[in-house]
# Entry
Amino acid sequence: MSTLAGVLGFPAAHSRSPAMMNAAFGELRLDWRYVALPVPPERFAETVRALRGSGYRAANVTIPHKLAAAGIADELTDPARAIGAVNTLSFDEAQGIVGHNTDAGGLIDALGEPPPATALVLGAGGAARAAAWALREAGAEVRIWNRTASRARALARELGVSAGSGDAELLVNATAIGLKPDDSLEGIPLVDARVVVDLVYGSAPTPIVRWAEERGARVVDGLEVLVRQGALSLAFWTGCDPPVDVMRRAVVQAASSTSAQA
Ligand code: NAP
# Structure
């Protein structure tokens, strides 16, 4: 029987992760099958426990379950513990449910170069936590801005970085702005950064990607971050070298047929 894995989200039906992961497993000639698992929040814990007893070896976790996944794990890797959110689970006979976070490493890999010295992270949810932690760990001076300023202050305090807006060489959008193509950027501190990462993605360039491209900034889009976090999850589960180009092609193909996230 194939080894089973899946992505737990709500919604999850339009996730690009099955296309991306199944393409990778095919390329690696691994007999794994990866499916979308839509699970409402109130059923998350029981579902994870049931998966563990039903032949599943691994799972990704997306909105809205990343904090709950950190709570349910028997063991957390160092990044997952420090970030307080989990996007990758493995089910292991000896260790039980192991929680890991590859959103952080995925962002750094997607940058493809050492992070600039200064970074402004927009948002204070799970994605912003991972981004701010990853950039701080990589040596950047990080500021966190959020629509609800008190959340930015609390996260900044927790991570030992600054809160509020300010000039930066790297701008990371980790808010939900851009999920709708006509989202307004009014009130968002779009600073004059030379590198712009938008974690949000859709079937068309997001408003922040369009804004950054018009200014001539180097742009890293959310699909590239998705591919890189998926590549790190796959390596964590299998120990194999992830076929990043194959995964990217699968995600882009899936992206042209849907506009959903994760
Ligand atoms: P989350 O925990 O729900 O946080 C949402 C954040 O967006 C909060 O900071 C919220 O601010 C802010 N926000 C929502 N609507 C806004 C608006 N109209 N104007 C300004 N700020 C707004 O979500 P998350 O898990 O952090 O994810 C954030 C985004 O990153 C999602 O779109 C997700 O799909 C994307 N993401 C992408 C990847 C990838 O691999 N590419 C990975 C992870 C996440 P308040 O605190 O004021 O509500």
The longest helix spans residues 222-238.
